Amino acid sequence: MLMDTTDESLARAAAGGDRAAFAALLERHYDRLFRLAFRLTGSRAEAEDLTQDVCAALPAKLASFRGAAKVTTWLWRVMVNAAHDRRRRRTVHAKAAEGWGDWELNRRAGNDEAAARTDWLMAALGRLPDDLRDTLALILDDLTHAEAGEVLGISEGTVSWRVSEAKKRLKRMKEEEQA
Amino acid sequence: MSPPGDDDFDLDALKDAVADATPRPDPAVRAAHLRLAQENFDRLQGSRDPSRLTAEAPNAGAWPGVRRMLNAITTRGRLTATTALVACGLLLTPAGQDLWRPAPGVLGGPQTPELVLQPDPAAPPAPEAQTQTQTHAEADDAADAPVVAMEPSPADEAAPEAAPRGRMPEAEAAEESLADVAPPPPAVAPAPQVMQRVAPPGGAAMTTAPQADGDAVAGLVAPAPEMAPPPRPDTEPFANEAPNPVKITVEEPVSTFSIDVDTASWAIVRNSLTRGQLPPRDAVRVEEMVNYFPYDYPAPDADADTPFRPTVTVFETPWNTDTQLVRIGLQGEMPAVAERPPLNLVFLIDTSGSMEDPSKLPLLKQSFRLMLDNLRPEDEVAIVTYAGSAGLALPATPAGERSTILAALDRLAAGGSTNGQGGLEQAYRVAEEMAAEGEVSRVILATDGDFNVGVSEPGGLTEYVERQRDSGTYLSVLGFGRGNLDDAVMQALAQNGNGTAAYIDTLNEAQKVLVDQLTGALFPIAGDVKVQVEWNPAEVAEYRLIGYETRALRREDFNNDAVDAGELGAGHSVTALYEVTPVGSPARLSDPLRYQPEQVAGAEGELGFLRLRWKAPGEDVSRLMETPIGEAVTAPDTEAAFAAAIAGFGQLLRGSDYLGDWGYDEAIALANANRGEDPFGYRTEAVQLMRLAQSLTR
């Protein structure tokens, strides 16, 4: 029943106070939200905190859902904005960078090549500037450049530029590593 | 690790890598988040799910709600605030408070939510709610403006908007909308939304009040400690610090802490779990959970010159086969009870209005009755009460005069607000009068919450307690009931008063604290007990102290006798657990440094060196005991394994990163297999609680 309903009608019902609709909507998208949070932050702990921020704020934010965008686009935007807030707060509090810096800690045991490759790529991703990494996080989540632009509030062209810039930098890092 | 071999950088490889690295959400965290979202949702609607009501939810206190509401009003600074204040004024009177109580006569039964919903402007079915939503949407460029006005509690919504609606005569629409349901008393109408708040069980900091500066941050409700707004994040502040991190031995070989024999954390955890909620993470202090249980450690030899005996065991960590747990157990001597000096006890009893709850004053009376049976005729008892004003309910009376004491106890009744400081001063005065050479004096404070009236700074209170401690009167704190239990103040007072803080939620717990462990709780055998371990970098690469976050001491504090630390009572045992990673273990989290000397000088065969400092009761100069920690890894005995299981349980509740795949199943199996004799059934209860927690996290 509820599970067959579209995101949009669930969101409208939830904005109108339907708690079951709200629960169903969040249940449906929680995993992807968490996944995105992880890709924006680079650590499980940070991702959990960020997801919690978003979950806590979502009921109030629902009022601002206009139905103009897809619910998912809107959700990703809430997540990306929350990540920005969090980073800004972190700078304000002069807290040592957590998250991406911790990737070393999260490395799984085992020395096989695939794991090493994953580790290298994740570490490299962590060294990208925030805006490039955020853009990549969305693109890697199968959003089109246009959708990512909508989430980030930038043009499709800017997304494309960022993606190619990110690729360029990653390639450079790889070359440096090999040299 | 080698970089990928491809020539061109392809995103697919990155995509695979990222997909590979992205973890699945933790089911427990996921459930907690969904619950939090739902609760915020409900709160925003001004409704709540009646099925989730619990008799003594930790958020039932009326005062904090009012405080939050007042905060909200000042921060918003709307014109309507004045009207809202008129409505609030009614709440602040005792009669107003009574109206809040579940009061079946006034707002009874299942229709309560409807009654409550009607005047709420944000209530879903009401047409104006839709309008409001749209206005919001237009004013606010969807989610672009970072988070807008997350209303953390209905207080913010209800106070400025609902109150004027209910109260102002021209708000005829509101009157009409109330007309088809049974009309609640007008002054009450706006208020239930304010009070009927469902606090997220997940944590204290989740319900932050909005910040005045309008910072976008204020909207997001996050658990990060730095996010907590200055006033009080929730009705029950808990004292805790971030879990101890892994330390690298080469960089920081010395670990120093004070012992902690409190048990309050375990009782709070149990109380939350039996109510069907996971305890707030900050309520979990792992060392207090471990130390809740008596352990069978060898007692000091009769002719030993130390009042306690350390037992150190090294065994494999249950949750990580590549690390070891070092268990340091201290067993205090049990002096012949017959020779104990006479006791002077001053019960300082909070009789404020909030104590009128079966789990508070009545339980307290029963508990003291139990205790009375264990006192000697030559012991003396006095009772000081404090509410609006402090009063002497029972002057110093020999414990032999049971009926006099019981009668005074029975006369106690709850009413009025709380003046902690006034009561405390009087209690100490009484204790001073009772004191005589060779006797032990102690004030036992029983309260359900905070000390609001009088001294507003908890700092002032703790300083006061500290001065009294130096004059020889100690203070223990007993917490009762949930709702506005101020764990942080309890901890601070007991730690500064050289006493213990215990939380009593059942008569069984009263039995444990006030009867079984009475002697230990009241007769210190060693004061300011400090533990310092210097780890040997040749053997231990990394170490981590499990728990004791609130008891950490600086390295130099160890030898500084002016620095206060925990007391060890007669017959008490204290347990501390370190998780250590041996040099060369694959579990090592940090890489060895390249440019630092490879090998550090250190005796082979010793993991570390244990130093203990303590003061004999009444003395000012500490004594030192030193012993090396051998590296021999043994099979854990029952006591060690059970302590490890409890430590694991505590870390699970705190959401520790160090446990890997080890979860409730393993914790339960380990605890169950190591219950030992368990004469009082404490360990059996622990296993039941673990199972409860497991089902709650599913």
UniProtKB/TrEMBL annotation, chain A:
InterPro entries: RNA_pol_sigma-70-like, RNA_pol_sigma-70_dom, RNA_pol_sigma70_r2, RNA_pol_sigma70_r4_t2, RNA_pol_sigma_r2, RNA_pol_sigma_r3/r4-like, WH-like_DNA-bd_sf. Pfam families: Sigma70_r2 (PF04542), Sigma70_r4_2 (PF08281). Residues 25-91 form the RNA polymerase sigma-70 region domain. GO terms for molecular function: DNA binding; sigma factor activity. GO terms for biological process: DNA-templated transcription initiation. Belongs to the sigma-70 factor family. ECF subfamily. PANTHER family: ECF RNA POLYMERASE SIGMA FACTOR SIGM, RNA POLYMERASE ECF-TYPE SIGMA FACTO. NCBIfam families: sigma70-ECF (TIGR02937). This is RNA polymerase sigma factor, sigma-70 family.
UniProtKB/TrEMBL annotation, chain B:
It comes from the Bacteria. Residues 103-191, 222-242 are annotated as: Disordered. InterPro entries: CLCR (IPR051266), Uncharacterised_YfbK_N (IPR022156), VWF_A (IPR002035), vWFA_dom_sf (IPR036465), YfbK_C (IPR021908). Residues 144-166 have a biased composition (Low complexity). Pfam families: VWA, vWF_A, YfbK_C. Coiled coil: none annotated. Residues 344-522 form the VWFA domain. PANTHER family: CALCIUM-ACTIVATED CHLORIDE CHANNEL REGULATOR (PTHR10579), ZINC FINGER (C3HC4-TYPE RING FINGER) FAMILY PROTEIN (PTHR10579:SF43). This is VWFA domain-containing protein.
